[in-house]
Amino acid sequence: MSARFSTLEAWLQWQETLHPSVIDLGLSRIRQVAITLFGEDFQKQQPLTITVAGTNGKGSCVTALSALLHRLGKRVGSFTSPHLLRYNERIRIDGAEVSDADLCDAFSAIDTARSEISLTYFEFNALAAFWLFKKYRVDVQVLEVGLGGRLDAVNLLDADVAVITNIALDHVDWLGDTREKIGAEKAGILRANGKLVYGEADMPSSIREICKELQVDVRQLGRDFSVAIQGEDFCWRGVSAEKSSVSLTIKLPALPLPSVACALQVLANLDLWDEKVFSEALPSLSLMGRMEKISINNQQWIFDVAHNAAGAQYLAQRLQCEGVAEVVLVFSAMTDKDIAGLLVALKPVAAQCVLFSLQENARAASISRLHNAALAAGIHPEKIVCVDSAQTAIAYTEGQSSETPILVCGSFFTVAALSDALR
Question: How many whole angstroms separate alpha carbon 258 and alpha carbon 165?
Answer without folding.
Answer: 7
